[in-house]
Amino acid sequence: MPNLWIVAVDLVAILVLTYAVYFRRHRRSEMLLAYIGLNVGVLAVTSVLATSTVGAGLGLGLFGVLSIIRLRSSELAQEEVAYFFASLALGLIAGLQPDPWWIAPLFSAALIVVMLLVDSNPKTAGYRRQVVTLDTVYPDETQLTARLEDLLGGTVRRVVVQETDLVRDLQRVDVRYVVRPTVTTRSPLLASTLPARSTADAPSLGAGAFASDVPESLRPAARRAGHTGGASSDALLAADRATDAAVRS
């Protein structure tokens, strides 16, 4: 019968590994159930095998076969495979109940710290890998690299040509590149070329602002209305009526 505190340590370790380390960086929620289920399953079976007459090698061999089937049933990235085996290792460490008692929590914590440091390395955060199919064959590697950098928006570190089809004019390449940082600040040169606007350049919204739209015969009335700054409503009304009469005629 496994110690309850070892089970509690394993559950805390797998929750920290999946939610605080893996999901915070990779954001693939469907893998959380797979990692936690694998960890708990390995913990349960290993604990039973440790107290039974069945050989532990047989049980571990069965779990190895099941793990291979699971890994081949769906396409997983290499970092997800690493978390897969880390979850498996946490379950084995807790299920075997090593002596002395502090070995299980110590190795579990060390495994989580190693995964956190390696997966959160800022030097490798900007590196990407893609398989790109081009509609043109580039026999020159310099032209191929320039085309890929323009297409991916990054600095190409390595290019591996996987396939070249001269009949269909296609080329498949495996690219390892670094994403260029995006610059969102305003260019000083652009800021210096933009003209500065003041309130004096703003158009007036008074009655005199539309004097150019009034016919020549009606401009005196409009000027008088503009000089009043809109205070004389009779003058504005007379100008509007005169403008309407001129338009109708």
Please describe the topology of this protein.
Layout (H helix, E strand, L loop, with lengths): L3 H23 L3 H21 L5 H18 L4 H19 L6 H17 L7 E8 L6 H12 L1 E12 L4 E10 L8 H6 L25 H9 L5 H16 L1
Antiparallel strand pairs: 1-3, 2-3
Written description of the protein model:
- By secondary structure, the protein is α+β, with helices and mostly antiparallel strands.
- It folds into 3 domains: 4-122, no CATH class; 126-179; 214-249.
- Helix content is 57%, strand content 12%.
- It has 9 helices and 3 strands, in the order H-H-H-H-H-E-H-E-E-H-H-H.
- The protein has a 3-stranded antiparallel beta sheet with strand order 1-3-2.
- The radius of gyration is 37 Å and the shape is flat.
Radius of gyration in whole Å, from Cα?
37 Å
E-strand count: 3
Distance between the termini: 106 Å
* Order of SSEs: HHHHHEHEEHHH
- By secondary-structure content and strand pairing, the structural class works out as alpha+beta
As laid out across the biggest beta sheet, the strand order is 1-3-2
Average predicted confidence as pLDDT: 77
What would you call the shape? flat
- Provide the domain count: 3
Q: What is the strand content?
A: 5-15%
Put simply, the count of helices is: 9
Percent range for helical residues? 55-70%
Characterize the biggest β-sheet. Answer: 3 strands, antiparallel
Low-confidence stretches: 198-214, 221-232
Region (Disordered): 218-249
Biased composition (Low complexity): 230-249
Keywords: Membrane, Transmembrane, Transmembrane helix
InterPro entries: DUF4956
